[in-house]
Amino acid sequence: MQRGYQYLFGPVPSRRLGRSLGIDLVRFKTCSFDCVYCQLGRTTDQTTARSEYVPAQAVIAELERKLKEKPAIDYLTFSGSGEPTLHIGIGKIIKAIKEITAIPVAVITNGSLLWMPEAREDLARADLVLPTLSSARPETFRKIHRPAPGLELEKIIRGMAEFRKKFPGSIWLELFIVQGINDSEEEMKALLPELKKIQPDKIQLNTPARLPAEDYSMSASEAVMHKLARLLGPRAELIAEFREKFPAGESGAGESEVLNYLKRRPGTMEDIASGLGISREAAAKLLQQLRLRNKICSRRWQEREEFFGVKPGPSRKRNR
Asked: Which residue among 7, 72, 179, 248 has the highest number of C-beta atoms inside a 10 angstrom radius?
């Protein structure tokens, strides 16, 4: 029996999307941004070059195989190791998904490439697109996202506005709030004119809830988040923690499935048990085995639960 997936992970418990089956289209930490809050750490391959980073047909084949298992999922979600719109075949893959299933397609993107007409066209068949816009001020934008050379805030916002004009699906715009950087009333007021251009269906305020790339990327308090949401109007909401737990079953998940999960989404023991459909005892045993083999590491952040992740490889940061 064939087991294991190279490009799919989860389903994971998502605070926005419920049961989300991840589709990963790029190599680890290949991104156009180097966000201070990223749960996967620093970007090691920063680029704006679109390419077939992984074989599109192999991704489609894995999806066909996974869907035959009839998993309980709410969304097929492009996310994972980096920026999914960097994959030049994402439009082809979305088209293939639409031909084999009615499960809605979501794309979690930093929105940095929507100024490209071809990127906007590729995402046109998705049901839901979740871009990020954390500031309307260039200096703050650069401080939070550390974009690749050539990515200017004005161009990115213009691309999002152009995408909105023709996209028939829903846009949930994420505002990632970092304490002391963009958590002021002035920052929110500066965003209002740009939000009118983009016209998102929802404005979702988020803040670091997992280990960030930089220790100074601290989460804002709930009171501050509520205050900022009120300034942005009725479409603004806070992203609540995902409370529903997946039932424990006999999924047969082993060490490879846990590593595949943690590579794209560091999480707690509860996250892993819930996402992979195994008991807490089974998850604890697998994590202990992987820790003894020096495959994973863990740490606590802001007095939260223990978070697990894969051991980082050698840094090879470069711009393209």
From this structure: 7
- CA dist 17 and 32 (Å) reads 24
How far the first Cα of the chain sits from its last, in Å, is: 41
- Contact (CB, 8 A) for 140 and 187: yes
pLDDT for res 296: 81
CATH homologous superfamily of 8-244? Aldolase class I (3.20.20.70)
The reported pLDDT for the residue numbered 243 is 45
CATH 1.10.10.10 intervals, the chain: 252-312
**HSE value, Cβ hemisphere, 13 Å, CA-based, for 313:** 9
Tokens at 249, concatenated: 């079953």
Topology (CATH) of 252-312: Arc Repressor Mutant, subunit A (1.10.10)
Query: What is the CB-side half-sphere exposure of residue 258 using CA atoms within 13 A?
Result: 31
Helix extents (H) in the chain: 56-68, 90-100, 117-123, 138-145, 153-166, 185-198, 222-232, 255-264, 269-276, 280-292
The tokens for 35 are 């966000």
Domain with CATH 3.20.20.70 in the chain: 8-244
